[in-house]
Please model this.
Amino acid sequence: MAETAEAVSAWDRWNEATQSIAAGFETRPAGPVSAFRGSVRNFSVLGIDYTSLETNARSTSRGPDTVHHAGRHHCLVYQLRGRCMARQGNRVAVLGPSDMALLSPAEDCEIVNHGLIRQLSFFIPEQMLFDSTGSTDIPGAVAIAGDSALGSLLSTLIMQVHSRSGELSSFLTPALGSVMASLVTPLLMEERGEDASQAVDVESMVNVVTVSRYIDANLRNANLSPRYLARILGCSVRHLHRLFDGSGITVAAYIKQRRLAAIAQELRNPYHAEDSITEISLRWGFPEITHFSRSFRAEFGMSPREYRDWTRTRRLAS
Model:
């Protein structure tokens, strides 16, 4: 009985929280209310409100927002976990992890989930999209693949914002909405069949910070290389090399340096004391142990095993 009462309470708390996000927000559980799971957290960063939502509900839906344009917001949904289908009118966007969909406030919206999902929903002022696209014709359920050129930029931006929301919440400059509006503008113009080439020069937006942050977030990806980065970020390999010209290090060398730093951190960590050096090197993108050992010695002046023993001795001595 206690478990049932707690689950019903969770359901009630969920409905109360979601009603505060949007009037007319309705949830359909996947089974009995006693099995329902759901949590909602609200954030405000750089002039943009966004919500972190996790649930095993079968679907969530809301009606159109009839508020005047100045007070309406389009919702950029970022799929963190699980899969779902977002539907507006006769348009459908199917989302997997790191995929996104831009949803219009002018139409009914339904999101059908497959199991437990987690999403981040960013509320972009409608007027910003009007100003960026030069049109009030903004379609709904616009799908954005997370591995596309613009999608990868948006994905990196969203994850950086969410991971550092505590620090960024102290800044009041309303900058995030205009950046997001600019990044989705080419996609919206393509949906209308217009030439989006003048909307955003993607390559000009790929700078050293963008590249280095993407590398740091994807060090375990075995495919990480200058060619892979160029394809994902939508720029040329030459542009990547040009970005790093003034840093005294190549893109490939930066990737290797960051991977070696991550490995050194794990070798120092008692939590990974039982992990073999080969296992750790494979985890961080070094498939060939001889090449890894040689690279590690060149970076730290000793072999991985010597480094692990040295740090263990220092830890015990302290």
Q: What stands out?
A: The chain has 13 helices and nine strands.
